[in-house]
């Protein structure tokens, strides 16, 4: 009886975690900017936005703000697992949910998500993208939650802080097991038949998700203490990024350098490595996320708040937003060029050779933002409807969306 009362008491504190949903919803909108850029922006067809020899501040920062998506997505997924324990799941039940949902995400990566990006399940190559990494990290967390809290915290932080020590290890070092090392820590070509590319190596994402699971205990603390801790954690993380990045040594394989002007130098400083996510990259993105949580903890958003709506059904949103962006890009292309053989071909940002497309293919950056805004507005009523249905019906399978 005592345990049941304790669980119920903790469950009453869960409205506080609306801040986490708000953060996750904000990340969903940023994700739409990134994927709209992939399909629509002319510069995205020509050069990577991180290439400072060609990029502009607007192009670079449009890409940079989307860097928050993957770390926060992973971290929030770990926190969400802990919230399930707070709602009354046993560790055995949570473990089963994590590995089954992880497998489901991997299936979605190779089917629904892939179809949304390419409109062609047979398109080569096969990319191991964010849903793959999220699913594999959940499967790993299903095992890791059996560890004592202190051990799990040490493992997660150690993976985040120390994994850049592994950067110099080449896959060939492991001989027949080279493919395993590529999956774990090297963005690379995994196989040629079929053509498979590891876009999201699993280290340190497993550690990020496990850290989110450990972090979520902060929501057991009294309000003022929790807010103060979140703010301190955010500021310390940002300070750690500035100090470590400033030293230009350990923490990122891509050093920054003085550029032709101060703004470009700042861009070089912020130009950290995402694949695999470096320590600097994670400090840079998670620090502001903690500050946001401290700030958002003071608000009680209404049920119609767009970020809250998206943050409560992030996977549902994710699976819809890519094909919608793709369809809009196809419509824009047909209006501009008429019926063309490249109409249903993925853009150069997703693997199609650039010379398949017209030299002037793509639109200005403001068009990218306008299309993104339209997509987000279109998805709002759909996501709000699904969120209400899921809350009202509570079907078990809905938790997998």
Describe this structure in words.
The protein is mostly helical and 401 residues long. It has one domain. 62% of the residues lie in helices and 3% in strands. The protein is built from 15 helices and three strands. The chain has a three-stranded mixed β-sheet with strand order 1-3-2. Helix 2 crosses helix 13 and helix 4 packs across helix 9. The chain is globular, with a radius of gyration of 21 Å.
Key words describing this protein structure:
401 residues; globular; three-stranded mixed sheet; 3 strands; disordered N terminus; mainly alpha
Q: Compute the CA-based radius of gyration.
A: 21 Å
What are the secondary-structure elements, in order, as H or E?
A: HHHHHEHHHEEHHHHHHH
> What spatial form do the alpha-carbon principal axes imply?
globular
Mean pLDDT: 90
User: How many structural units, i.e. domains?
Assistant: 1
